[in-house]
Amino acid sequence: MIYDISRLLNANTPTWPGDTPFSYDLTWSQEETGSVNVGQITTSCHTATHVDAPFHFKSNGMTIEQLPLDIFVGPALVVDVSTKGEITVNDFEDIDFTNVRRVLLKTETWTGDEFPTQIPIIDPELGPFLLENGIELLGVDLPSVDPLDSKTLDTHHSLLKSGVHILEGLRLSNVAPGEYRLTALPLNIEGADGSPVRAILEDDTQA
């Protein structure tokens, strides 16, 4: 079974306040060309479901096309932290990270079509903890791994220092906690600070 865990892109897609909203328009219609419809899109690199490149928050960091693709494909563990206002290492005491490289946090905070005004705090200490447990990707169903008003982006920097890549804006409401196969490949955009992705989870245990 395949779960689409990406947010829909259209004119109503919530965008970080002040950032470039998503739009799709026909450049040429089939009636105009006599053969095809040709469209164009405009969007922030951080609208809806997306990967953050280190360059997003560190000027000498890797850009999106430089990231290793194997990070974004493979087994992933969905962890339910929906009752937590602050997510710390203590919330993972009973989690077995054996053979796990990718962790997706289900907070259930951003379930509607409006941009959230408040999100759970992710403790920056989670970075070293994930490093110790061999985790190389953290995904969240939030627009950011840091507080919405943060300027220092402590959790972003902690994850980067710990070698943990960031996947944001997931849609996990219909996904139960457990193990899946993730595919969430960023576009091959030279020099970009991030990229939209079409993220899916595959569950081989269900028909």
Automatic annotation (TrEMBL):
It comes from the Bacteria. Keywords: Hydrolase, Metal-binding, Tryptophan catabolism, Zinc. It catalyses: N-formyl-L-kynurenine + H2O = L-kynurenine + formate + H(+). GO terms for biological process: L-tryptophan catabolic process to kynurenine. The active site is at 56 (proton donor/acceptor). Its cofactor is Zn(2+). HAMAP family: KynB. This is Kynurenine formamidase. The lineage of its organism: Bacteria, Bacillati, Bacillota, Bacilli, Bacillales.
